[in-house]
Amino acid sequence: MLQRRSVFASTRSTEAIGVVAVLCGAALFAVNGTVSKVVLEAGMSSLRLVEIRCTAAAAGFFLIAAVRRPSSLAIGVRELGSIVVYGITGIAMVQWLYLVAIARMPVSLALLIEYTAPLLVALWVRFVRGGAVRARVWVALLLSFGGLAVVAQVWRGITLDRLGVLAAGGAAVSYATYYLLGERGLGRRDPFSLAAWSFMAAGGFWSLLMPWWSFPFGLLTDVVPIAGTRAPVWLLVAWIVVLGTIGPFGLFLLGLERIGATRTGLIGTAEPVLAGIVAWLLIGESLTPWQLTGAAIVLIGILLAETARTPAITPEVGPVEPTFIC
């Protein structure tokens, strides 16, 4: 009995760390959105920002992995292929497709479509993997996406651009791939070495498309206003790399390792809500009563999912392999 209680407490502690990691990662992503917007308005193109973000983050993750455990960076030829696929489809493509979408439709609506990724993950787990997904998860997903729809205020007569919708849908598929392949990759290596190699693949992909010798380095010395003060673009880019990429991606991978792809994706839907709050605080983008209501609905959905789970433990053998149960 004492052993079972100890296992239960350990499981709960591990899951709590995973939940906190994902929430912190979502908060950092939310801040990153506003900082990135300021950099883009300063004149840097979206693709160039993605390029420097991926490449510099790869260097950062390699440094972290080398300091923690150098042997973790060892990689075989067969694994390298899957890492390249993960880096391009789960990291590079999701950012590019999102940029195409927001160029053709409102950002809030593009983000809403992209954040159907957790639903795609849950559907994959249930109908392809044959995993267990409780009925309450679908209610939580419905609340989360319904809340995002209210935040986006989709009833305001928006005319949808066909290519924009396809791009946002592609971003959702790529985002779901990020969760699923990331979870698979964590079965082979630790989060930091996985991030190092996958971001290197993403950075290499963008570098081939846009060579570094044509990068607008002069723009980095410009000074721009943000949150009532002024800061050089290079400092904001450093923020985007360290606290907008290395920090949140590392935290999300830690979350994947501890609570699985379905729950990580669901909790990650807090990001659009947090992004709206951050934009309101830093650059004065106000939230309407409807958007505040939608934010509350999203948080209720997340809370419902977090209170609708039980540890997978049997009396005879202790903990079993985790399933995607929320």
Describe this structure in words.
The protein has helices spanning 2-41, 46-68, 77-104, 107-114, 117-127, 135-152, 162-185, 191-209, 233-267, 270-283, 289-306; strands at 223-226, 229-232, 313-314, 318-319. Helix content is 73%, strand content 4%. It has 326 residues and is mainly alpha-helical. The strands form two sheets. Strands 1-2 form a two-stranded antiparallel ribbon. Strands 3-4 form a two-stranded antiparallel sheet. Mean pLDDT is 77; it is low at 309-326. Helix 1 packs across helix 9, helix 2 runs antiparallel to helix 3 (77-104) and helix 4 crosses helix 7 (162-185). A hairpin with a 3-residue loop joins strand 3 (313-314) and strand 4 (318-319). The relative contact order is 0.20. It has one domain.
Keywords:
326 residues, mainly alpha, two-stranded antiparallel ribbon, 11 helices, 4% strand, disordered C terminus
